[in-house]
Amino acid sequence: MIVVTGAAGFIGSVLAVRLLEANYRQLVLVDDFSVTSKRVNHEHLAATARVDRDKFPAWLQANESQVQFIFHLGARTDTTEQDSQLLNRLNFDYSKEIWNMCVEFGLPLIYASSAATYGDGSMGYMDSHDIVSKLQPLNPYGQSKNNFDAWAIAQKRQPYFWAGFKFFNVYGPNEFHKKRMASVVLHTFRQVQATGSMKLFRSHREDYQDGHQTRDFVHVEDVCSVLLHFMHHRIATSSGLYNLGSGQGRTFLDLAQATFHAMGKEPNISFIDTPLDIRDTYQYFTQADLTKLRASGYAEPFRTLEEGIDDYVKNHLIPATSREPRGFFGESA
Length: 333
Fold this sequence. Notes:
The protein is an alpha/beta fold. It has 11 helices and 13 strands.
């Protein structure tokens, strides 16, 4: 059996679909399945078992001999969450428990880290283990992820194969439940649909034009392709931390224009001041260094931003708005 934690969430639910499409029928989904806004992501999946996240450690103790691989994608992912105790419990302690059981039972493990670990980017975006202890994330979420990365690489007892992936700005289907934490693509689509225009943060730095703040946007299907590749090509010498982005930084202006184009509309973009409470810590550039990922043997191309947005808008967002109530997009139903 293959286990996917966070299976009701964004990346986890898409990965579960990909596994089923690849004829992995012995699939165990782990999450808090009481969250109704996530139901559309998982209720159609033909899983061998659905296990509540709090009961999963006991379940694994009882069923470890039947498990072949664990994808640990479950986490508290709200970057504005200030409850460090909650983040520590869900993102650090829970991950340590899964790690230790993988060591005990000889199970390979892939887990979700985050590009939020890089903080303001002043140390660059290289996925070297040497800089993990020096990174200074800008929020408790990023700190919780970096804490686990640092703990993992320091362990003498490790799963025979493990990989932690630092996800950059992932977008694509099954993110509707994320509300304010959803991708900028979804927010742009909703704003254009509602008003016919899009407002972007203006630049408050002389070296960046308005709208030219840059992010590494990566389609969720590309993320899942990488995860599946590592499941199939797991060797001990490949264990470690990896960046997972497209490897190309693109501007918010690029993203907005691509979304207008996919919707068949002329761009109508204006700029507003970046809120004061985030202005000093606002990132102006992120871009995943994929040298290590490519050296591991992953050679598949990533979708361009335009290709990814075109697919997302035309094949998911537009069809969803035509068949779902307003509440589907996180608004009042």
